[in-house]
Amino acid sequence: MSNELFVLEYWPSPYVARVKIALQEKGITNYESHEEDVHGTKSTLLLEMNPVQKKVPVLIHNGKPVCESLIIVEYIDEVWKFSCSLLPHDPYDRARARFLAEFNDNMFFNFIRKMWRQKEEIQEEEKKEFINFLKQLELELGDKPYFGGNNFGYLDIALIPNYSWFYSYETFTNLNLETECPKLISWAKRCMERDSVNKNIPDMNKIYQYVLELKNKFCTD
């Protein structure tokens, strides 16, 4: 079986980070990446491979596109079975992990986008809602080292790219997320010790500069 792989990506994207972390966790490092200009002229390849959404990430495996980051992570897990499984083996645990990953995607970036789309300061009530969201994840984590228990897995991969954006949120809100959610931050730091995570999620300071650029773009008078 040929394994010609391309990843269409955009460097700040947490969704792209998921795909690259999953590939490395599976021991897949022999692939090509193509950086897309998602705010400008999108490549012919992206428009051909994802004509419906025109978004990254796209995994192109032997000429066939797979879209949507969580679907891509599951695809990687199913195709490359020779190494550790990313999804839980138990059907209920699998369903729970998928639910929480979807819950994260529906919630997290609604909070984060407010950093660059609102001219006024983020209100106290919105800050509380964000902390409550993180505390729900922290409750799910409990005292386990990873969301997957003793093993780093699917839900960890889905959630850890959020960590790149924490510094920006703290800076714009004067929150201390480590004080508010110490177990969650300990989990994030534990994940950052993994080579697959450390190499593939964007630097917090670069994300902060990116957020400033977006604020200049979206919050001009």
Protein architecture, described:
- The chain has 221 residues and is of the alpha+beta class.
- It has two domains: 5-79, Glutaredoxin, CATH 3.40.30.10; 91-218, Glutathione S-transferase Yfyf (Class Pi), Chain A, domain 2, CATH 1.20.1050.
- The chain is 55% helix and 8% strand.
- It is built from eleven helices and four strands.
- The protein has helices at 14-25, 44-49, 69-79, 91-117, 124-141, 154-159, 166-173, 177-180, 182-192, 195-198, 204-218; strands at 5-9, 32-35, 58-61, 64-67.
- A four-stranded mixed sheet has the order 2-1-3-4, covered by helices on one side.
- β3 (58-61) and β4 form a beta hairpin.
- The longest helix has 27 residues, at 91-117.
- It is globular and about 50 Å long.
- The mean pLDDT is 93.
Topology, element by element:
Layout: E1 5-9, H1 14-25, E2 32-35, H2 44-49, E3 58-61, E4 64-67, H3 69-79, H4 91-117, H5 124-141, H6 154-159, H7 166-173, H8 177-180, H9 182-192, H10 195-198, H11 204-218
Parallel strand pairs: 1-2
Antiparallel strand pairs: 1-3, 3-4
Question: Total domains, how many?
Answer: 2
Q: Tell me what the CATH architecture of the largest domain is.
A: Up-down Bundle
Number of DSSP helices?
11
SSE ordering: EHEHEEHHHHHHHHH
Ends distance: 56 Å
**Percentage of residues assigned to helices:** 55-70%
Structural class comes to alpha+beta
Describe the strand arrangement of the main beta sheet, using strand numbers: 2-1-3-4
CATH class of the largest domain: Mainly Alpha
Features:
alpha+beta, 4-stranded mixed sheet, Glutaredoxin, 11 helices, globular, 2 domains, Glutathione S-transferase Yfyf (Class Pi), Chain A, domain 2, 221 residues
